[in-house]
Amino acid sequence: MKKRIVEKDENLKRVHRKSILFNKREIQAIDHYCKRYKIRNKSKFMREMIITSVLKKFDEDYPSLFEKKPTLFNQNLKRKI
């Protein structure tokens, strides 16, 4: 049997380390969640949750052609100065 050669993308290699601190209640909540939903890899879970949140925020903040809510810059000011 031949061994499969896998080409790895160097841009996807995880080389940047970040630390995060939790208080007792936060870590208990995370542990309870992981136990309840049978999550074994907490690192992967946290990475996915963070990236999901970031991408969701980017999607919400993406500029659109028609603004949904008025801001200071797109309101029609009817006052004459």
Q: How is this fold's topology laid out?
A:
Blueprint: H1 24-36, H2 42-61
Defining key terms:
81 residues; mainly alpha
Question: Radius of gyration over alpha carbons?
Answer: 23 Å
Number of helices: 2
List the secondary-structure elements in sequence, H or E: HH
- How many β strands by DSSP? 0
Oligomeric state, counting identical vs distinct chains? single chain
Can you tell me the overall shape?
A: flat
The overall pLDDT average reads: 84
Question: Helix share of residues?
Answer: 40-55%
Low-confidence residue ranges: none
Gap from first CA to last CA: 83 Å
Query: Structural class of the secondary elements?
Result: mainly alpha
The description of the largest β-sheet is:
none
Strand content: under 5%
Characterize the structure shown:
The protein has 81 residues and is mainly α. It has a domain at 20-61. Helices cover 41% and strands 0% of the residues. The protein contains two helices and no strands. The chain has helices at 24-36, 42-61. The termini are far apart. The model has no long low-confidence stretch (mean pLDDT 84).
A few lines on this structure:
By secondary structure, the chain is an all-alpha fold.
